[in-house]
Amino acid sequence: MPRYTVHIRGEWLAVPCQEAQLTVGWLGREAVRRYIKNKPDNGGFASIDDVHFLVRRCKGLGLLDNEDPLEVALEDNEFVEVVIEGDAMSPDFIPSQPEGVYLYSKYREPEKYIALDGDSLTTEDLVNLGKGRYKIKLTPTAEKRVQKSREVIDSIIKEKTVVYGITTGFGKFARTVIPINKLQELQVNLVRSHSSGVGKPLIPERCRMLLALRINVLAKGYSGISLETLKQVIEMFNASCLPYVPEKGTVGASGDLAPLSHLALGLIGEGKMWSPKSGWADAKYVLEAHGLKPVILKPKEGLALINGTQMITSLGCEAVERASAIARQADIIAALTLEVLKGTTKAFDTDIHALRPHRGQIEVAFRFRSLLDSDHHPSEIAESHRFCDRVQDAYTLRCCPQVHGVVNDTIAFVKGIITTELNSATDNPMVFASRGETISGGNFHGEYPAKALDYLAIGIHELAAISERRIERLCNPSLSELPAFLVAEGGLNSGFMIAHCTAAALVSENKALCHPSSVDSLSTSAATEDHVSMGGWAARKALRVIEHVEQVLAIELLAACQGIEFLRPLKTTTPLEKVYDLVRSVVRFGK
């Protein structure tokens, strides 16, 4: 018998359909009838005849024709939404997919797999897993380690040994021994009580990264999770069934408890969950629609799912990869600006940088020479001012290797820490199968990634700070020898006047965001967790800083391309002309 999951006014209803020839309109009316039946005030309606509605798919939000037969319009177990006429304009309206509808059309189920072993995941791998480009499987070695680890937990249960988090309460309740017949209930209660985060949910890409990283850590075999449960979690990841994880609530020790608890809550079939098929819906319905069963937690497994630094680290992975990309782009954009401002390439001479051989500085100088070298890629602009009387350029041009260089070195340093964290066991207690025992420690403390991501924010910000000054030079006629604000008819048009103001505003915001969150600590859990990392905020604000850097550099790129128009018919080097052509393929010259 076909069945449909219907969202109406913030609630989810399962509506069976006994006859295939019934219509979409029937489904809408039946959903409204069931909704009214469950409301003491009939949902505010005098009768079902007073209700006018539209029916649309949750997937993509496409409207359905009420007269179409269900067997033609919908697949079995599809998710649909009934929108009551007038509700969409109400402040109380709760759509099934509040934002990010584009994600439905972007997602394609991957065919390739990444084999996780807990030891060799890279930042690039995790970002690709977040983008839905791979499914996950375990290596045979990882499976054996997980099984051996679980045998230790089973032995503890059988022998009734008192061990933290397995046969005791948590935090301040660590000395409270739990009866054997309540050990499963203990784990479920742990997940429910710790699901106390607030804020917007992680977007699907970030939730995929979080879930994939937790799987990788569990695959190390020091968490005590059963292989059966871990494989269930992997099946959910591969089906892109992603729990509702609020972005705020972690203090970064004992691990990212609140966000990871929300992650685990969805896995046990509670709370909300997202999939490309359903949008946001009750987790139990989403899992059922994909033919999956909720996880039934065994002793220690709730703790195994929620104890670790995976929220900080997964967001940190995205930050590192985006920072790496924008740092490379910054060199190209700055080189184009230098050409437009008729700067000299002498400051990038190999011998100068050999005398101060920082790796990042040498790499950036090499990139500038590659982009601006007139012997290989002749620049008509450079040739036009070869014999000018200018001796040297402003620091924002001349010192790019030194300023951009240290940013590159910062990214490399942070990437090393994040990569180590990706493949680290961060549980408590740790289960050592080789010793047949568990040991309580502090690997859950997020200080390493927290400090690193604060450092990353400070480092990457400098790309925006120096870029904004170059934008000023491009817009200021007394510095650029170009029309004011890069527009021919100044006064009639304001050109890049306010675009520069936007860049200045973003740089100013970054100055506040670069204050390190990890210098703060607040004692929690009745002083048992008396020093914390605040790494969750370090990761989130690092991403905001990087977003601002991307936007400032985009403004500089547009300004440089605008400036080059006033130097035509002269051309720049071949590589930079290709950059110009790429920009002009999407943004036309502003006259």
UniProtKB/TrEMBL annotation:
Pathway: Amino-acid degradation; L-histidine degradation into L-glutamate; N-formimidoyl-L-glutamate from L-histidine: step 1/3. Keywords: Histidine metabolism, Lyase, Phosphoprotein. Signal peptide: none annotated. Pfam families: Lyase_aromatic. GO terms for cellular component: cytoplasm. GO terms for biological process: L-histidine catabolic process to glutamate and formamide; L-histidine catabolic process to glutamate and formate. It catalyses: L-histidine = trans-urocanate + NH4(+). The keyword Phosphoprotein applies. InterPro entries: Aromatic_Lyase (IPR001106), Fumarase/histidase_N (IPR024083), HutH (IPR005921), L-Aspartase-like (IPR008948), Phe/His_NH3-lyase_AS (IPR022313). Its EC number is 4.3.1.3. It comes from the Eukaryota. One of its GO terms (molecular function) is histidine ammonia-lyase activity. Belongs to the PAL/histidase family. This is Histidine ammonia-lyase.
